[in-house]
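Blinded run. Sample ID left blank on purpose so nobody reads anything into the name before looking at the predicted structure. Input follows.
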Amino acid sequence: MLNLRSSAIALSLPLLCLGTAQAQSGIQISGTVDLGVYRAYDKTSQLGTIRRSHIAVTGTENLGSGLAATFNLTHRFEADVGGTEGAGSKPFWHGESTVGLKGRYGHVRLGRALDVVYANDWAFDSWYNFDRIASPAWNNWHWNYASDRTSNNGNAEYGRLNNGVFYDSPSVNGFSVHYSGAFENNSAAGAGQENNNGLAIKFGQGSASDRPLT
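Blinded prediction complete.
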């Protein structure tokens, strides 16, 4: 049962963002260091990560004619013990490791990233799937769907695809299309789906999206 009254005292430290002087080309380093003292679901007091500590290296390179090359390398770690998140059960660049091409027709990425289900379910959680104490996603629905059963060094991954193709369209009259797919077959025992394809259509503006819930 989800206990939204769990208390926490947290300290978060955003990392400095570094970039070049050019507006369209550059490399940025960003992230968060998060530690807190909190009362867990089992009613024990703990010190550890409440949200997620991570460091990200992202970049763009202007190719001209409205095109830009992109990359994203995101590492997640546990600040209380100094180790990587998952204690070795997850890849070093667990958060994302992609290269891509972005232009007027959208953004295509290749590598490891969130599939369309997990990339778009954050809006349904007031804590954006980030808070281990209060976020309902952690206890209510994430464990019902493994996006890849073996991609975390042989362990199940809940959220990301390895060896994937990802596409995000520009917004047209408030509508956008998002796709993710992984096509490499894995014949190992306990492996996941041979093909994992997902498509999402979002509406993000206009009278329907602005209407208050009643």
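Unblinding after everyone has recorded impressions. The two ends are 26 Å apart (CA to CA).
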